[in-house]
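Researcher: Good morning. I'm working through a list of sequences from a screen, and I'd like to move beyond sequence-only analysis. For each chain I'm collecting a predicted structure so we can compare shapes side by side. This is the next one on the list. No need for commentary yet; just the structure.
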Amino acid sequence: MTFPSHDLETAPEGSKALLENSQKAFGRLPGLHKVLAESPQAFEGYQLLHKLFTETDFDAEELTVVWQTINVEHECHYCVPAHTGIAKMMKVSDEITDALRNETPLPTGKLEALRTFTLQVVRTRGNVSKAQIDAFFAAGYGHRAVLDVVLGLAQKTMSNYINHMAETPVDEVFHSLLWERRGAPLEV
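Model: Good morning. Structure tokens for this chain:
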């Protein structure tokens, strides 16, 4: 099903300023933002979650691990390529990006623990065991990181689910980064 895809002229009044901000920030209107513009509240909520997640204690690599782990698990045709491009802009190594996209081991145990915990949260819908939380803590993370993973999940659930339902076309700038799951999901 194709959803409305707005620009600055067709967007509801409450979304116009949000789209203007996107245009200024990216030099273009990302496809997800065009779709989100149909609901000013959903658009603002998504942007607020994004802003808050980027203000956590996670560094660029860790933000990317959480985002892409969720994107890959949800098989988001739009977000995996988009976050591959975003990771490049954030100077995250191709080694990390490729491992996330291909579901192969990450270069450090700490990043792998973050991916594993994120997957456990997604797959259990937050019903992680004490042993899983203890393993996450043993890798060097704390209670705040648990909450911040959930914050990242809230943001990515919005975008992944919306992109699935809206069949959001991948932005042309990310066409060279298209992705498709190659094998079975990671075991955790």
